[in-house]
Amino acid sequence: MRITGKGMRVGSFGRLLAALAAVVVCGASTGCGGGSKGCGGSSTRSGYIGSSDRVWSPKGTYADVYQFTACDNQDVTISMSSSAFDTYVILALKSDATTYYVLDFDDDSGSGLNSQLTYRVTNGVTYSIIATTAMSGHTGSYDLEVSGAAKDLASARPTTGGVLPIDPRSPATPTSSQATKRADAAKSDRGGSQDAPAPTGTDEPCTR
Questions:
Q1: Are 115 and 45 in contact (CB under 8 A)?
Q2: Do residues 143 and 80 make contact, with C-beta atoms less than 8 angstroms apart?
Q3: S-S: 35 plus which of 1, 21, 39, 80, CB 3.0-4.6 Å?
Q4: pLDDT tens digits for 150-181?
Q5: Are strands 205-206 and 115-120 parallel, antiparallel or unpaired?
Q6: In the prediction, which pLDDT does 157 show?
Q7: Which residues pair with 166 in a beta bridge?
């Protein structure tokens, strides 16, 4: 199922162009922009995906959403593991208050049925992680680990209810028919696309 979402406002489009200028210029450089002191390391969160969680619209699966801020122009590795279900992890930007522009996703690149992806992030940009399941209707506990140039990993409000729609401009579109296919188009454009939105509608972070 493909969700078209809503168009961006003019103000959001202006912020998009400003953010893209930094991504295009600095995205391929390891020193551009300057990293924060203490940047790097690893953060782990444990969670539970249940029937009261939000629904990731392309797959119809229950999902939790997290945020982190890139603290350097380096790689970030995101790993999701569970003994209860086949995991599926998505990296995205917020197009607006509700819509997600997918950058990359993974099903089974980790051990067994666990997920893992690596993506070159841009210093100072806030990214969203959608932690979900490969098959609809599945629930259970999981662990999420983010390592590399990331800081301030936190779950994002609201934590329950509602639908998580995908931006139709996304170069990577994780649907049920693509459950094991990597986002090759997104990975070939690490610096970001001219159509990529700025993260202007980030959720309110919280800890749990």
A1: no
A2: yes
A3: 39
A4: 999 999 876 667 888 888 888 766 654 343 34
A5: unpaired
A6: 72
A7: 100
Q: Using 70 as the pLDDT threshold, list the residues of the chain that sit under it.
A: 1-38, 158-160, 172-208
If you search the block for the tokens 């401009």, which residue do you land on? 169
Give the separation between CA 188 and CA 74, rounded to whole angstroms. 16
> For tokens 């997920």, what's the residue?
115
At residue 170, the pLDDT reads 83
DSSP labels for the chain? ------PPPHHHHHHHHHHHHHHHHHTT-SSTT-PPTT---EEEEEEEE-TTSEEETTTTEEEEEEEEEE-SSSEEEEEEE-SSS-EEEEEEEESSSS-EEEEEEESSSSSTT-EEEEEE--TT-EEEEEEEESSTT--EEEEEEEEESEEEEEEES--SSSEEPBPTT-S----GGGTT---HHHHTTTT--TTPPP--SPPPEE--
User: Going from the N-terminus, what domains does the chain have, and what CATH number goes with each?
Assistant: 10-206 (2.60.120.380)
Q: Around Cβ 38, how many Cβ atoms within 10 Å?
A: 8
Say what the pTM is.
0.71
**DSSP bridge partners of 106:** 89
